[in-house]
Amino acid sequence: MRRIFFFVVLLIVYGSLYPWHFVWRQLPANPLWILWHSQDLQFNRFLVRDTVVNIALYAPLGMSGYLAFRKRLWLPLLTGLILSVCVELVQLFVPGRTTSILDVMTNVTGTVAGLGLGVLFENIGGARRAPVRARAGSARTADRDALILLFLWIGLLLFPFFPQVGLSVPLHRIRIFFGTSFFEPVAFLSALVSWFAAGKVMGAARVRPSLRWLGFSILAVPAQFFIAMRQPQPSDLLGAVTGFLLFAGLRRIPGITRLLAAAFLLTILIRGLAPFGFVPQAADFSWIPFGGFLNTEWQYGILVLLEKGFYYGTAIWLLRASGFRLFSAAAITAVLLAIIEVAQIHLPGRTAEITDPLLAIVLAFALGIGSRERENEKERQREMERSGNRHRQQHNKSMGRG
User: What is the pTM of this model?
Assistant: First the structure.
């Protein structure tokens, strides 16, 4: 988890200072004085946008910091404060950027929010607070990797979490919904495998009863009429219902996890290459990680990142659940994404870049941390069981001698 924490720090620095164009200029005062007096508060939608972005950017820092240090929570808090101040000071020399003490405050708020998420993540399965004897039964211990994927899926369904004010926009979206083609193959297949996989993830995360909650989650599709910047399609709802029904009927069939893993990889391939309109002219390939995400509008970029995180992370998780080792599961997913990116050179309207294979590797690393913690927990449980058996044997021998 400390490696994850360090990697999050690097990502924040990389994203905050991208594209790394600096211009030296003479400052009118001490940089810290400029930062402290940069209290330009104008309450508008841009202020709300920047606040949400800054909190979301530093929440992973607080969450990974809590899981890495736990008893020394001042370390992630101090890191968030120092990192935010340093980034704001460096932005004095970045063209087009502004330095704001409000950004420091919201970044620290994001770090604190991340600490709260870390507490929730650690205790949601009951593994930390339950007695050792109760934890010996794995039924009460949640799969931490599945919890990560569940958080990504909820974010994908409900982001950006802002309700749409008024009824005119939702009514317009409903008219678009009924005026759209009822069946789009790619959207239908994506929703189907997503809901089926979400059912498996809920079961592994010990969300009980998983079938009922999976059915309840279908309501998130029509709820998107009332969420800012979301437009559900009929194929999304049809695919969600079909995925739920298939999960309800097939979830206990032997070998279904392997079939689901294969279907998930196939869906990723189809999504990456649709509509298969290849042209002979090759476009450029970008070797800048996360360049497309950092250059796009922030809300759309985060939504795409949540979507890719869920799909690629779930593919790796399903492969592992099918019996593959973590390295093999990560390699299969990353190679498939690399093939898709290379093929997208000849697909108009697509941006071929190195980001997706790298994202799969990062997700595999994060899931590997959770897997090692789970194996350590199981080993501790086995050791406690062996110790208990030894004590019982000694007690029985002493009673026999008596």
Answer: 0.78
